[in-house]
Amino acid sequence: MLMEECGVFGTYLKEGNIAPSYVVEGLMALQHRGQEAAGVSYTKGEKIESFKELGTVGAIFNKKTLSNMKGKISIGHVRYSTKGTPDITGAQPFTANYANSSFSIAHNGQIENSEKLKNELEKKGIIFLTDSDTEIVLHLLVSKLRKSPDKWTLEEISKIIFENIGPSYSLIIMFKNRMIAIRDKKGYRPLSFYEDEHGYYFSSEDCGLRFLSPNMKKIRDVKPGEAIEITEKGVKNVQYETQKYSHCFFEHVYFSRPDSNVFGRNAHQMRERMGEQCAIENPVDADIVVPVMESGLSAAMGYSKMSGIPVEMGLIRNRYIGRTFIHPEQTERKIGVKRKLTPIYEVIKNKRIILVDDSIVRGTTMTEIVDLLRQYRAREVHVRISSPAVVSTCSWGVNIPDKKELIASQKNVKQIEKHINADSLGYLSLKGVRKILNFDHENYCLHCFIKNNLEE
Amino acid sequence: MLMEECGVFGTYLKEGNIAPSYVVEGLMALQHRGQEAAGVSYTKGEKIESFKELGTVGAIFNKKTLSNMKGKISIGHVRYSTKGTPDITGAQPFTANYANSSFSIAHNGQIENSEKLKNELEKKGIIFLTDSDTEIVLHLLVSKLRKSPDKWTLEEISKIIFENIGPSYSLIIMFKNRMIAIRDKKGYRPLSFYEDEHGYYFSSEDCGLRFLSPNMKKIRDVKPGEAIEITEKGVKNVQYETQKYSHCFFEHVYFSRPDSNVFGRNAHQMRERMGEQCAIENPVDADIVVPVMESGLSAAMGYSKMSGIPVEMGLIRNRYIGRTFIHPEQTERKIGVKRKLTPIYEVIKNKRIILVDDSIVRGTTMTEIVDLLRQYRAREVHVRISSPAVVSTCSWGVNIPDKKELIASQKNVKQIEKHINADSLGYLSLKGVRKILNFDHENYCLHCFIKNNLEE
Amino acid sequence: MLMEECGVFGTYLKEGNIAPSYVVEGLMALQHRGQEAAGVSYTKGEKIESFKELGTVGAIFNKKTLSNMKGKISIGHVRYSTKGTPDITGAQPFTANYANSSFSIAHNGQIENSEKLKNELEKKGIIFLTDSDTEIVLHLLVSKLRKSPDKWTLEEISKIIFENIGPSYSLIIMFKNRMIAIRDKKGYRPLSFYEDEHGYYFSSEDCGLRFLSPNMKKIRDVKPGEAIEITEKGVKNVQYETQKYSHCFFEHVYFSRPDSNVFGRNAHQMRERMGEQCAIENPVDADIVVPVMESGLSAAMGYSKMSGIPVEMGLIRNRYIGRTFIHPEQTERKIGVKRKLTPIYEVIKNKRIILVDDSIVRGTTMTEIVDLLRQYRAREVHVRISSPAVVSTCSWGVNIPDKKELIASQKNVKQIEKHINADSLGYLSLKGVRKILNFDHENYCLHCFIKNNLEE
Amino acid sequence: MLMEECGVFGTYLKEGNIAPSYVVEGLMALQHRGQEAAGVSYTKGEKIESFKELGTVGAIFNKKTLSNMKGKISIGHVRYSTKGTPDITGAQPFTANYANSSFSIAHNGQIENSEKLKNELEKKGIIFLTDSDTEIVLHLLVSKLRKSPDKWTLEEISKIIFENIGPSYSLIIMFKNRMIAIRDKKGYRPLSFYEDEHGYYFSSEDCGLRFLSPNMKKIRDVKPGEAIEITEKGVKNVQYETQKYSHCFFEHVYFSRPDSNVFGRNAHQMRERMGEQCAIENPVDADIVVPVMESGLSAAMGYSKMSGIPVEMGLIRNRYIGRTFIHPEQTERKIGVKRKLTPIYEVIKNKRIILVDDSIVRGTTMTEIVDLLRQYRAREVHVRISSPAVVSTCSWGVNIPDKKELIASQKNVKQIEKHINADSLGYLSLKGVRKILNFDHENYCLHCFIKNNLEE
């Protein structure tokens, strides 16, 4: 499964001091964007305090923790980490103390020119206490603005960031008495903004703002190249000139919660249209369309609508999975994927199946699923992937493995089909993606679907 | 949500001593039948040991716990409790010590004549250490068979149980060197049996046996009125004469995992057919069919197939729910159901919606959902329930509230429609249920759908 | 270390409903009497509810747990278990349901005629759901009094218990609207009683009553052979005729908290006098007296006072012990007792040491300690034990191992001296014990110090 | 209670890769120096990894955590924090990434010129991600040595640290393939060094080395002004010229474990001598000497020896304390200190008591103890403090409150005596301290005992 690194949330209250509670509530809704660690920074008098821990939002925060966290301004972060061992050092937000003041940053994204920036900063004698790209932003701001963070203007901050830091970034920065949100000029990662009578809120996805009110019409995106500042006086913004955007298409394919609107498009509806287009491009005669729950469900519905072949729940996801209790050395049985996904025999047996999933990364899981369906007597298994084949890795925040591990980088469609033992295999084409995006495809990053900058 | 009380699992190994590991693995798959407590009994030399705790299977058992639990014979239990406060005293299996030996019981069901049996036993000076019906079974066996449990024959045990204990029960009893499974003559609750080269296994639902092998064809039901004994010599059974069965229809409506085959019918497919029949009986012109995830999904698919109106994911269930962090006293906002279910605005707005769920109990949640859809600008909300209205409580193991709390016991369909503020409301009829069950409906218990023994 | 099985606490409030909070507070103070499990029973309307869990009182109970536990009457129990695997089934109090009512029992002790009682009860068709002696009491009362527990009189209850159940027992029984405390006629285990303006309280040791008030003069013992009943009307008691008592001398040696007054004697002061008498009987020329902290401290002070040789803290107990992190397979080093007890080199080196401990059971730990002192250059190590040699096992509640494992049952003093590699070894004599107890020694059980009913 | 901030431990193994296990074992023994957080850094191939968490060593580390932590070189840290809210950001060790390499630091102490150093570094554009003094060391080294940490020589490192950083510091620095330990020229905090056939070890106190071997004679101090480097080639050291030392006297008074040898003196023995001297200076006619366990025990023994008045255990510390279960709003009773310390009535009543403790900070606890003893009928209570009155705060690592909160800064001895309601009060004098330290007192820091640089 491809995973992204992080979700961010920020709250600036017009009145009251429970901003951290709002942030935690929002992080709960963004939990799907990162489960390794979570953290919150908040104002406490003239200081900024932080609370970070390994684990899920629900496990870390509770009434007691929150009772100690009061403030008017707060930002938070959920983190997914690519490293094997969970490490608290990388948990955000990061707070920097400088010139008798401080500021705190929560960042979603991955900075493409991080090596270059690090080298330049190191030449100035700057060290890095974490492995995180985000730390660069803190140092860069200070090294350019040698004065109290409280005196940095929105214009100064945004100029430094937009002119130096390569995408991708959706940033929320809090100071003692204001908050700034910034989104890179390419708009790789989403970032939403909402204001109501109680305060101002930023959230990676607008699903994080759902708990606030039914009147969601006032939600808008922080625009690519835009920086928004919230102070006592209200909202102020700076808009940098931008050209083409590079919205990450994988936000539509997999990351976002289905009810989120990302880049102006609802995630569930996009997936349905990807399923429809995949059906147009890869028709096959079959009895039922079976989604790989839960991520494939929207796309399977689209495939079904277009093909007229009914969706059936042929694979059930077990909500209560955990460790395996019978260990491999104790038995010749292979349990593996069977504990997570179980086929419904009555639905599967003797059927010609169109199996719909959102992507294939290494091919291991898909091979197991096809095998499982055959054990349950599926007559034919036709695999349909509702996005193009992933052939390249990513420098803007998606944790795609090395090319060597990407099956589509090593094999062509026929070879993959054979590898996973499918009766047929079809991907959504890049042309199909462009068609779905209408004339907007030039504003999307489709880099991971493109090999050596040459299309298939 | 209606809830059932418990799932049971048993393992008798032909070789090796990791029967408890098999039981825990099986309980993982039965977790949906009870999350309050879990327990395992197992042989340790000539003794039977137990390990029980409050919590989910995954939280209670781990490598370390299991390393101390070795034995050839083991039974286990997951418990759902109707009481507010979790209480370890009622956690099963129950182990009885008698005449220098012992036996242990895991029970799914609720005994209809428990009061009468308790009174008779109390007259003999017997006390009850728990509130559980199951304890009656232990006392009854001993009070009738005044000798070491090891000398009780299958015939003696089954005669006492079948002739005295009213349904419902699916029981697994373990002794130092054998295991007996018994299912009441009416067959209220399911119980599956499987044998392979390693051992014998009993499970409340056959989904609990899925991890053992792809060759599931050898699974069979313990029949109503049947008692099966496993010893070193193999399998022996006793079959009591039975007449009509009383399979609990709610196993099809809600309890069973969709991939389970219960009473010879696949749960998912049954739900689809209930949705289809509901569509035939309650047609309405609309734009989309929206399931109340996850339980309503199968029925919604059936409704869609029959009506030709497409299923759409208009409501998303948040996988990561937990406590609320913003407390009511802090804000005038009502969060409630919004955190669990979030509508997709783009799917909902301006649409005429057919909302499909499996049942309405008190009506509270459904009222909130309809309200939520209207906030998201649904044009019309037509509620369709894929089972008949629940009007009576249950004495055979389903935790249905008092009639006073059952909305359908207090109001008619029109009144409920108004109460939940739906544009229209339609239930599956009892006639429809009979039709779906074909000529088999007389073998089902439909008691909770019938008021005063008079149909609507 | 010898360990006893359990502590009990009971509260009957004249006003208010937080009796369970009092019980938990009391159990905290009795924690040293059992750390495996803890439980509380309490009235909830007409019912008795229970909450029991494995673990220490502090780990089990908290604000949240207690907020659900309200009642006027409550009893509680801390359990030490002799079995390797912790088992929740044996956690007390035990609650019995009978004849539409119920009662709950907490028991400290071990019933000497339990096998006989069990056999008799089993002949009546009674089974045992636990391994605990305590369950016998429940069954016995019901089998003799076939009516609602609410109608049992104090006279009936105490007659059945005193005439049938062999010691040892200090029992607290709660009903829906009263509480009864009973102590066996021999007075093996302690039990204290206290009344103030808020309510009535029973506690295994009076240290459990310390939190209630500074005015502790009103504390009295429940007398051997006495049963005390608390109802709305106040206190009522029944006193059975008793002859000699059999107070467990090990309560003085080790079990009780130093500040407790047990059998009319302060535990710390008794230990001091045992140390003094041991000094009289086993004089030796040495430089310092070193206690094995913490249990040996009082006795060492006594030894020092009498001998004039100063006490020195030559061994420090590490408060923060836990698991070992360097595993034996990884190194040839033996860590063992060194992590718990560390000698102070400057105090130990070149010194002739009198090492004072309260008892030797198997001899393993003492051997390690002597070895450790020699590694730290002690010149001589003279071991002094402030109680007589333990040579027999116990049937009244002390968890003494089999004779085969008791070093003093297998070896004489000279042999033990050699085994533990001491320069000399001296025990307090039985005569010395009698002298300390003055003319009261016939009211004490000294059974574990006596081999085959013949003194050394 | 005064508390210090931290303990450090380091291991460089000659063979094998379980250095982190040794470090965790050592941290267990240093747990008394900090319970808020613990952490370990270790080599993993060419990288340095860290694992830090809030909580005690025993709660954080286990077999599973350690199984992922393998390396030849490892350092660790236990942290006590002065802030109310535990904060993971300040947990050590700190690891800095620079110039494609990294190094990690564990620090015990507090840097007196930290503000000046921070200002200088901030002028160079350096920010601080934590509130910890320790971070200064990382930045300072890099800002002075602009090359890969692997190329920094022992001479360069020690020169920068000794010439720039004010005391107090006992530092352990690890690199990919070597370890350096440095102690400030004044020797405020202790640091021990040990070598055996398996490796090299540094520990804040030598009690942390106790588990390694009985042969502790090879332990030596890292000297004030000394830096020791461990590489594959063995040990190398640099010694800076030093003049007078400033050993922290509070290490003797309270911090160190009694079995530790700190500044060449055993902690327990020093405390005894302080008690003796206090007796000489503050004689009083009384019946018994009662220590405030556990910290006052050694001093009480000294007082007793000198005065000839016997030590008695009149106050027992409850090992199992935790939260209070009966809340103030529920009862007029004040529980407070009574749950932690309980007097023994039989020891206390009618006695003239000399109560010995190591220090009085705010006076709150002492007032409660005296009150408690009077409730238990003590005839007289004479308080003796085995160190001089604490009148000034500390800049070198001891968490002493503001002068306003220090009772001895606000009141004279007579006034304090009255405040705590003692019959008499006596402190050890500064002259007495000097006498105990013989001619070595000029090598100690006694700053917190001195008001305005003028002695009492």
TrEMBL record, chains A, B, C, D:
Q: Where does [4Fe-4S] cluster bind?
A: 248, 394, 445, 448
* Cofactor detail note: Binds 1 [4Fe-4S] cluster per subunit. Binds 1 Mg(2+) ion per subunit.
- Cofactors (names): [4Fe-4S] cluster; Mg(2+)
For this chain, one GO molecular function annotation is:
magnesium ion binding
Q: Which UniProt key words apply to this protein?
A: 4Fe-4S, Glutamine amidotransferase, Glycosyltransferase, Iron, Iron-sulfur, Magnesium, Metal-binding, Purine biosynthesis, Transferase
Protein's pathway: Purine metabolism; IMP biosynthesis via de novo pathway; N(1)-(5-phospho-D-ribosyl)glycinamide from 5-phospho-alpha-D-ribose 1-diphosphate: step 1/2
- Record InterPro entries: GATase_2_dom, Ntn_hydrolases_N, PRTase-like, PRTase_dom, PurF
Q: What does this protein do?
A: Catalyzes the formation of phosphoribosylamine from phosphoribosylpyrophosphate (PRPP) and glutamine.
Q: Which residues bind Mg(2+)?
A: 295, 357-358
Q: Which reaction does it catalyse?
A: 5-phospho-beta-D-ribosylamine + L-glutamate + diphosphate = 5-phospho-alpha-D-ribose 1-diphosphate + L-glutamine + H2O
Iron-sulfur recorded as keyword: yes
Keyword Magnesium listed: yes
One of the GO BP terms on file = 'de novo' IMP biosynthetic process
Q: What is this protein called?
A: Amidophosphoribosyltransferase
**EC code:** 2.4.2.14
Catalytic residues (positions): 6
Q: Which organism was this protein described from?
A: Geotoga petraea
| Glutamine amidotransferase type-2 domain segment(s) | 6-233
Q: Which Gene3D superfamilies match?
A: 3.40.50.2020, Glutamine Phosphoribosylpyrophosphate, subunit 1, domain 1
Record's NCBIfam families?
A: purF (TIGR01134)
Q: Member of which family? A: In the C-terminal section; belongs to the purine/pyrimidine phosphoribosyltransferase family.
